[in-house]
Amino acid sequence: MRPAIDKQLLAPLGEVAANFAMLENTLSFVIWTLLFGNSLEEQRTGQIVTAELSFKDKVALFSSLFQHRFPDAKPFGKLKTMRKRLKEANEKRNNLLHSHWGAGTSADSSTRIKTTAKEKRGIVFEFKPMKAQDVKEVADFIAEVAYEILDFAIHMHEPDFRK
Fold it and tell me: For a disulfide at 132, which of 8, 45, 143, 151, Cβ 3.0-4.6 Å?
């Protein structure tokens, strides 16, 4: 038995998963540096702190630690933007990787099927035709956010960052 997904979507879906793993690891690294600076001796402690946290909890911890470490910093607009981008990357990843896939409306597409059953709306089925390029764009977005969070962390200790 084979899934009814266009084989051209499999590589971009793998790229989404790999890029998100990179993003999550980068976010964990930023948390470690907020906790312990550049101390390699304490990196293991940071790994223990972040190992069992969900991505959402890592975003919350990152935000809280940043505000704690830089209470007088002015780049809270940057922090707000980073939180928004991290949340968006997580939602895009979840929409793709926590969906079912069916036959598409054309030979080069598949249909993403998302089923939810929330308290307020009950069961909802979402059907969205997707091509490999659509999934690739999500993978690229997630990689871009990983770069942005690393760049944010690299520059957060510079004096100009606080302006």
Answer: 8
Residue pair 62/34 in contact by the 8 Å Cβ criterion: yes
pLDDT tens readout for residues 71-111:
876 667 888 899 999 999 999 999 999 999 988 888 788 99
Domain that holds residue 134: 7-157
Provide the whole-model pTM.
0.88
Q: How far is it, in rounded angstroms, from Cα 106 to Cα 157?
A: 51
Note the pLDDT tens digit of each residue in 7-61.
888 999 999 999 999 999 999 999 998 998 777 778 888 889 999 999 999 999 9
Residue 2 maps to a domain: no
Total domain count for the chain?
Answer: 1
The answer to whether residue 162 sits within a structural domain is no
Beta strand 122-131 with 109-118 is antiparallel
Q: Where are the alpha helices (DSSP H) in the chain?
A: 10-36, 43-51, 55-69, 76-97, 132-155
Residues of 66-98 as b/e, b for ≥16 C-beta within 10 angstroms?
beeebeeeebeebbeebeebbeebbebbebbee
Q: Which amino acid is at 155?
A: H
Residue 163 within a domain:
no
Question: What's the rounded Cα separation, in Å, for the pair 104 and 41?
Answer: 52
